[in-house]
Amino acid sequence: MLQCPVMAWFKKARKPITSVTAEKPSRVPEGLWVKCPDCGNPVYKKDLQGNLNVCPKCAHHFRLNAAERLAALFDGGEYVEHFRDLRSTDPLQFTDTKPYRERLQKTIESTGMNDSVVVATGRLDGLDVVIAAMEYAFIGGSMGVVAGEKLTRAVEMALERRQPVLIISCSGGARMMEGALSLMQMAKVSAALARLDRARLPYISILTDPTTGGVTASFAMLGDLNIAAPKALIGFAGPRLIEQTIRQKLPEGFQRSEFLVEHGMLDLVVDRRDMKAVVARALRFMGAELAPAAVPEQAGVAVAAPTR
Ligand SMILES: [Zn+2]
User: What is the 57 CA–ligand 1 centroid distance (Å)?
Assistant: First the structure.
C-alpha cells in the first residue's frame, strides 16, 4: 500500500524523540556491581565495601557518608554521638524554589539526620579524640547555624576533656538559606579553634571531595595539619566561576588536592586506607596520649547535654 508522504511525515512527528546520549540499560544486576567513574572498570560492590569504598583497580575514592567516615577512623567503628537533636529554626523564613522549612523537613526524613554535622567521641588507635564529620547528603553539607554550633561545641568539648579535635569537611560551603547567619559560623568556629590552639591541643583538618566556599575559607584550612583526600576538589569559588571571571584557562588539576599540596596550600594527600594510621602518628607526634585502658567511654551520655 502506498503511503501518503504527508501522512508519513505526520506520523514521524508523533514518534518520541530519543536522546543520542541516552544511557544503554546496564546488563549487570542493579546493586551488585558498580562502575568506577575514574577507570571505567566494573567493581564488585562487596570488594569495594571491603576496601573502604576505594576502587581496587585505580584507587578512586568513592564518596562516603559521615557515619562511614567516622566508622573508618574510630577503633572498632565505635563512637558516641553528641548534640544530635539540634535543628535549624529557619531564622530568615527563607524561600527559594521551595520554603527552606520544607526542604529541611524533607532532608531530615531522607538522611535520618537533623543537620549536616555529626559530632562524635571515641578512640582512634587508642587515643581519645573528638571528631566532627560533615554530611554532603544534607543540603550539600552546607554550614548553617546548627553546623556552626555543633562544630563549636565539638571544639569546646575537646577543650574540656583535653583531647585532640578532627574535623572531616565535605561541604559546598555556607548555607545560603540562612544568609549572613551562616557566614557568622566561619568566625565562630575559627574563634573556638583559636581557644583550642591557646590550650595547646591539636586540631587536624581532613578535607574530602568536595570542600569549598566558607568551609575552606575558615576552619578547614586552620588545622595544625591539613590533610586532603586524593583528587578532592578543594577551593573557595568553583573552577568554572573563576575561569569566567578572570577569562583565562586554569592549569591542569587546579583546585585538586595534589595541586594544592604542590603549591603549599595543604600539608598532605593521604589515601583513605592509610588515613587512620597517618592521623594516629601525627597525633602522637603532637603529644596526644593513650587513654587509660581501665576507663571505658561513658561520658557520652552526660556530655550529650549542652555544655554551656
Ligand atoms: Zn577505578
Answer: 5
